[in-house]
Design brief:
Layout lengths: L1 H29 L19 H18 L7 H23 L10
Helix pairs in contact: 1-2, 1-3
Length: 107
């Protein structure tokens, strides 16, 4: 039973992380900004089009939705989802702050 609980916690953590990533890329796509995705060249460094960011955001949202199909009910479950999201936010801030991004780049 403990193994299943650990797997469920990881699933919730990953769902929260992917939800934050979906929000970032969807926002960049909706505002028409070019931003790195795995589709860019080089992957994760080069700038992708707003459309590619929308696709990547939608993929992250779909996977997050699948992982979080059963909404967290207990406080511990909610904390796990939020922790995944917060840590992903800090990781993304750290990763993208190290890249030379042209913030005025448009598609």
């Amino acid at each position: 039973m403990k193994s299943r609980s650990r797997t469920w916690r990881f699933t919730q953590f990953a769902g929260g992380a992917l939800l934050v990533n979906a929000a970032l890329h969807s926002a960049k796509g909706l505002t028409g900004q070019r931003f790195p995705t795995p589709f860019s060249s080089p992957p994760g460094v080069g700038l992708s089009t707003p459309g590619q960011n929308m696709v990547w955001g939608a993929m992250n949202l779909a996977i997050s939705g699948a992982l979080l199909r059963r909404l967290p009910r207990t406080t511990a479950e909610k904390v796990t989802v939020v922790t995944g999201g917060v840590l992903m936010g800090f990781y993304l801030r750290h990763y993208f702050s190290g890249l030379e991004l042209d913030e005025t780049a448009r598609a």
